[in-house]
Specification:
Shape: elongated
Number of helices: 7
Low-confidence stretches: none
Distance between the termini: 37 Å
Helix content: 55-70%
CATH topology of the largest domain: Arc Repressor Mutant, subunit A
Largest sheet: 3 strands, antiparallel
Order of helices and strands: HHHEHHEEHH
Radius of gyration: 21 Å
Number of domains: 2
Mean pLDDT: 91
CATH architecture of the largest domain: Orthogonal Bundle
Number of strands: 3
Length: 174
Amino acid sequence: MDDLQPLDRVARIQADWRRERPDVDVTPQGVIGRLHRLADQLTEELCHVYGHYNLSEGEFDVLCALRRAGKPYERAPGELAAHTMVTTGAMTKRIDRLERAGLVTRRRSGEDQRSRIVALTEPGRELIDQAFTDHMRNERRLLDSLTPAETETLEELLTTWLSHMEKRQPLTHT
């Protein structure tokens, strides 16, 4: 770290730990701690846009998954859960609220009367098209402090790391 650069919160925490526990390597905390703080700040910044459309982060995600499906903008709830990485229980709550707001509809599947299909309504499609445009504008704003080369490098590093993490088995404590 550059000696001229003031210590950020994570660096101060690391310095404290180095003083108190010089026997423990706290180097990983520099990356993980900053990513954690950055993720919290990014989530807050992203949620401002969702809130402008009276959507939660999860509801925005559901509408995006339906819109990405292409015409007729519909998926089964299980598919939605897979495309948004949430449980089907959480998905049901999101769909309930979106349906009450008139942004999605539910109907029985033509192939299996026990199954349901969730579809965007026209107001839902219009809302998510505008919200997504604003979301991408906001994400661009959040990345503007990085150069294009830094953004590309960061994306490559995060892609590689995420790939490795997704292949790993979770650590279990006994």
